[in-house]
Amino acid sequence: MRLADKVALITGAASGMGKAAALLFASEGAAVAAIDIDEAAANEVAKEITNRGGKAFGMRADVSNPADAEKMVEETVKRFGKLNIIYNNAGIEGEANLTAKFSLEGFERVIGINLRGVWLGMKYAIPHMIKAGGGSIINTSSTAGLSGVRGGCAYAAAKHGVIGLTKTAALEYGRRNIRVNAICPGPIATPLLERIAAYQKSREVTVQSMGSNTPIGRPGAPEEIAKVALFLASDESSYANGGIFAIDGGQTAS
Amino acid sequence: MALLKDKVGLITGGGSGIGRATALIFAREGAKLVIADLNRKGGEETAAMIEKAGGQAINIECNVLKPGAAEDLVAQAVKRYGRLDCAFNNAGVAGDQARTADSTEECWDFVVGIDLKSVWLCMKYEIAQMLKQKSGAIVNTASIAGLGANPLGIAYSAAKHGVVGLTRTAAVEYAKIPIRINAVCPGVTETPMVEAGLARRPQMRAVFTKGHPMGRLGRPEEIGEAVAWLCSDAASFITGIPLPVDGGFTAI
After folding, report:
1. Distance (Å, rounded) from C-alpha B242 to C-alpha B163?
2. Is residue B205 part of a domain?
3. Does the pLDDT value for residue A202 go beyond 70?
4. A169, B153: Cβ pair inside 8 Å?
5. Are residues A99 and B152, on separate chains, in Cβ contact within 8 Å?
């Protein structure tokens, strides 16, 4: 069991990569706080874990709301006694508009959830990790954190920003034995990518076709990201800190 | 040969530091300028320095985060000079010095608002004007903190990385027009913003100095020269880059 006796909080845990990580972390022995804006779906994931004999609870939180972010961390510590791992994964795709046409509300919403939400998760988790003698923070960036993305100025700004957050916190807390790393997924077959494909004006664009543009020639599966998150969450990655891991089928190598 | 002859330039944060130094260089290179700053006195001084040197500049006191302000700023530039060729979205703040878990929401919203959202807002309206002209060049001020860690400044690091993301995205969106959009990433530069930070932590001067392989901090005009060049036709095939102007800081 690679996460025996560890407590992990995962945001965006009701679907896609977050759900895959919740199930995988639990199967490796972690007690999991499955956090999502969709409470019923978060509870379903928790139920799936407990049905298999694991430890989990589901909870609703809007990660961009400081009170919710604090509450999700406090509730996890209350239920499981400590916090070792936080996977700040919740994110939205936001509207698809060129920079000069992007809406003010849309910009605020994407930055609020995808960037501010990651910082808030770290902010409230770190004091508990210091108490626990260390911990691992995993933040979800994106290949859009490494390059531009047409029609997604706020998404790219937020995901680039997550890399800044990750590197900065990694330097600040390395000596406290808190490691902070980011994953930059390429096209992964998740509900989010399905929505992005559906936005495209051309009907030819599908999750499959978006994946076929990568050197590996297919979209990634959520489980392929979850396995990287598991490595970063576990002690196997004990010297990985401030790392930015592109898991993208080679997309950013081109 | 004047790099920016007869071009119209807009510079935010033009009342001090890198913005002022860049404004003077733009004017030296033949541009007509709109200087925008929160600080009316600083903006007036920059405009006066330009006029004294024989250039043209107007000063607009402006908080680009206020609803309608960025749109109005671009409209005023166009009203005065008829067009907008170059924009330098440079206004920025550093925020409090605190570790991630100790930094406040107020500081986060303040820094991300000015350093990230305002850059996007300015671009939004600058691009709208440049689309009408079918040409233009924009430079955004990111930072070495937009390329690497920035201990004790989580919001600044997030915002400046975000500026790099905005720059790359807008660059690919409008490359065919062409509107060129780049960023400069200054190292630690001798500006009032940096000096204010160093006044609180004087021991950091030696640390920063040593962090730059050239063994010194940058001068505002050294950033300005790079911005003027990026805005000029000399850089006609350059778009979407975060250009470090940092004495080698990010090379190590």
Report:
1. 9
2. no
3. no
4. no
5. no
